[in-house]
Amino acid sequence: MQEKKLVAIGYEIIQDERGEFPVMKAISELVGHMLPSIAGRYLSFFEGGRGVALANLPGIPPATAAIVGAGNVGTTAARAFTALGVQTHLFDISVPNLRRAEAAARAVITHMAERLTLERACTYTDVLITAAYVHGDRPPTLITEDMVRSMKPRTVLMDIAIDQGGCVETSRPTTNVDPVFEKFGVTHYCVPNIASAVPRTCSYAFNSNLKPYLEKVAALGVAEAAARDAGLRRGVYFLGGACTHERICDLFNLTYTPVETALPGP
Predict the structure, then answer these.
(1) The domain spanning residue 70 has which CATH number?
(2) Residue 59 burial (C-beta neighbours within 10 Å; 0-12, 13-18, 19+)
(3) In this structure, are residues 163 and 195 in contact, taking their beta carbons and an 8 Å threshold?
């Protein structure tokens, strides 16, 4: 890409002035809404699960879900699980993120994502979801092998961060054709790009957020559009033979050039 002087823009790292990722936001919310139905399937006895229903029935203690990461995916998932009556615990290192999640899902129980609280959560939850995201980099390993060993038999572990490398020491990418595997008696669901299972809805959601940026590029050209739009500028990986993303430069031993330097002058 560098040798051919291609322009490369990562839609997943276009970041607006509020610090959000507008192109990916709708996809993240879609995935969050999908998670309870997927988890419910693999909790089913006939899918090898614990035989636990994600429902709130009189006189029966509800199922428990633990979600690590209070971003768009985690917050939407928390809202979806609590709507079913599931006792939902949400973990994050950011108090403002947890505060926003509480406003979106009033019944959610929030915790700081510290090692001790995560270790404890692994022992009591029926569903564990890891959805931590680090901008432009691989997320940290938050759930260790020992934590997975401590989980109840036939619980469901969903590593939603597998797209970026995963947050769970025992996870590995799976596919929609063969979505789960068992490790230490725990069902692991590690499908990258979960939204691909609903491509029609996903395409509408994705394109509605991408369209404004495409229109700017079409009308102004990449360089001028990036010069005028800070969010689009943050999404540029390569421009005119220069690598403008520090993490990519680190990974491939390339020379880093700030995007402002790579943009042609007036």
Answers:
(1) 3.40.50.720
(2) exposed
(3) no
